[in-house]
User: Fold this.
Amino acid sequence: MATSRPPDLSHPIDSRDHVLGNPRARITVVEYGDFECPTCKQAAPSVKLLLERFQAKVLFAYRHFPQEAIHPHALRAAEAAECAGGQGRFWAMHDLLFANQPHLDLKHLFAYAERVGLDHARFTAEMDDEVYLQRVREHIDSGRSSHLRATPGFFVNGMIVDVSSGLQRLFDAVETA
Assistant:
């Protein structure tokens, strides 16, 4: 009897994840990303295309994996996205951060919060108090425990998908699943 290998993803999608797609889909895709990573920015349109192509068949979750050593603004950008998520605007902030990747310093993060319609006082207080820093650190820890080393990191139904040679592998993995 053949045994299936255990999943690579150490923490399955839960209610705290930011998700798009069908919550009852049998295919889950989890991305660990970094808002300052050029490859993550390039992957974002492909993820949207994947969701269009497989519509009701996929549930997609985005998790933070800022590469702080090489991307000095990535951690604060992740916190800003979480603050936006607390106000129901995670995906709007996600898209805006990738669209403005060269400008992720704190001054710009506050401007983006305004652009996506966040409560300014609440956003300021949450950023100042680092309210979501622990959540971002939990994402980093779950990525590391899933043996992730770089971004973007994709998992399809818990199995890591090597996209280093192109995102077609992600589409193929979803098609196979």
